[in-house]
Amino acid sequence: MPGRHFLQIPGPTNVPDRVLRAMDMPTIDHRGPEFKTLAESVLTRIREVFGTTNPVVIYPASGTGAWEAALVNTMSPGDRVLMYETGHFATLWKRLAERLGLTPEFLTGDWRSGVDAAAIEARLTEDKGHEIKAVCVVHNETSTGCTSRIDEVRAAIDRADHPALLLVDTISSLGSIEYKHDEWGVDVTVGGSQKGLMLPPGLSFNAVSNKAIEASKSARLPRSFWSWDEMLEANEKSVFPFTPATNLLYGLDEALTMLSEEGLDNVYARHARHSEATRAAVTHWGGNGSVEVLCENPRHHSGSLTAVLLPEGYNADDYRKVVLENFNMSLGNGLSKLTGRVFRIGHLGDFNDLMLMGTLSGVEMGFELAGIPYRKGGAQAAMEVLATAAKATD
Ligand SMILES: *Cc1c(COP(=O)(O)O)cnc(C)c1O
After folding, report:
1. 268 with 286, same domain?
2. Which of 98, 308, 332, 391 is in the most buried spot, having the most CB atoms within 10 Å?
């Protein structure tokens, strides 16, 4: 098909041409002087995106690797960790913890809202003996489009006066939704390259607090590749203990430049605007009781994606196939218990108003072709949100 493919899944996201060009470089000696300049730049500048002045560890791995790293560096065999079932990704992280020999406690969620901080506070308050060693939450649950309030989770831990570490997955929020590692007292923040950071898959991150580094000194889970100690020591001299993903780091350097040129606050506002316009479209389409936004709590609406629930009796994967075949657009599928029930619109990363309108037009035309009941004019409703926002900043 002529023209560009619309990659509107919530990650991997569209990689901007500037980032592609920045990576189109000969691979260099990762122990030479040129590499040191690159490493120093990314290791310093990545901190701002996490909202930290502490080190950020960069792994040549997908996000799952950084999940594992967060746990093996801070926990010991059998440790109890409190996790929250926001959706598919929280469930995968919990399974990973079990496989590592930890003892996760999983607070039940309904997959239609983010974390209920009061439930975390109640459980921690009960834990008088401080057996729970970490609280693990997913900031932006990519399977549901619900974003949890990490500031509220922090406040809950503080009110319970509990010493547990706070571990947060920001793989689909970093660089899209406001995040403050230091201010929110997060101990390990897990990130990935292929979502808000606009890079191809292949890099992941651990932002680490001093308390997390301290905990890593006595943590006894076996680790080698993921171990922070050698990495942090090498990074101080702008080198890596093993071969880094050099060309992805060139891309990261360019992506960080793009984020700082736009300004992080503007980046967050752009994502919030696209999310609001998308919800205006979905709400309009569903006006006659058809499709709806999966996330039910307005305080948890995600800035980076919107999951759309189809009416009973319609299959979201059949619908996505119609959209792909007719309009060359990929929409995200429903995951685990949401399979066939929802599709997900990614509106994160390198994205603008007209790309969103192309996306929403494709979604609306897809409803028509797939025979899904909807009320015409959702794309128009989104245009009104975008035009009003543009007028306000004129
Ligand atoms: C994508 C994603 C992951 C998994 O990351 P991989 O890079 O696929 O390993 C984990 N958590 C969240 C919230 C995600 O969006």
Report:
1. yes
2. 308
